[in-house]
Amino acid sequence: MKKSTKIISAVLASLMLVAAGCSSDKPAEKKAGGPEEKVLTVYSARSEQLNNAVIPQFEKDTGIKVNLVVAGTGEVLKRAKSEKDNPLGDILWAADETMLSSSKDLFMEYTSTENDKMMDGFKNKAGVFTPAFADPTVMIVNTELANGMKIDGFEDLLNPALKGKIAFGDPVNSSSAFQSLMAMLYGMGKNGDPMSPEAWDYVDKFIANLGGKMCNSSSQVYKGVAGGEYVVGLTWEDPAANLVKNGAKVKVVFPVEGAIFPGESVQILKNCKHPENAKKFVDYMLSEKVQNAVGMNLTVRPLRKGATLADYMTPNDKIKLAPNYDEKWVSENKAKITKMFSEHMEKSM
Q1: Which SUPFAM superfamilies is this protein grouped with (predicted)?
Q2: Hey, do 39-135+263-314 and 137-260+320-348 end up sharing a CATH topology, with the first three levels equal?
Q3: Smallest Cα–Cα separation from 269: which of 116, 83, 138, 117?
Q4: 83, 92, 189, 200: which is deepest, by most CB within 10 A?
Q5: What pLDDT does 188 receive?
Q6: What's the pTM value of the predicted model, to 2 decimals?
């Protein structure tokens, strides 16, 4: 009798352990070396249109569920830094190497299997920054207000008729204004030298032609031109081309002296929970399917060789790039350049 009781008790105990394991509220931990659960957390500073165009399709094609956290570049970067010792995100999809090089230690080294398919100049060079799309610096021109006025490049912005009618942000706080400043420094500098006296002499003349006006945000630039407050503005291609696409009386101008063509990149956060899923996400962003879909339907520029572009976008071979542009040098000297610009602004007041 005692022996039977012991056997029954042992069986009941085993069943209770199994039941406890099944009813636990805590998800089972992934065994070391086992497959990752099919989830991915993406910190994105990209546009709603771009997020919506690629993430649902990524989920459908891979079966990986994406937890999307959307905020500005500064905010998602701050979050990644605060979580450095215990990352809650897997992907940081924001900014470019110029903006992120000082935070390189946050990211895992990974070179996509699609890297060789990307255009020259837009491959992963540093091992962590993977350029996926581009949003070049452009001029947006109100075609009605310009009324045939020649506005093809930076030299034309010194036309006295444009004084007080140029929309430009503060390069200290606006990434589009900073990159536009770099484009003019490279384009107007002697032999493409952004720190030459000729480059900064042009900046002084440009500042004088602003007529004391400076926009408070990037959006104020293109909205101000489209709304008729300004004749021309310096901004990103994406919002300007989107206005063209939607029928606004504006046009996109790539300056004849050269545009800055930064590769908006995607990064994997170091020590993230789902590194293999993150690698799949990076590869997917560079895939022929995604690059063609974005090029045909949106106003950001794909960087894969031979990717299809919509007819409302300027063909790549019609765009002159800023001579001698050095992304690494710009990132290392950004603080110095913005300080110099502020000093030139103060001198003009």
Answers
A1: Periplasmic binding protein-like II
A2: yes
A3: 83
A4: 92
A5: 97
A6: 0.77
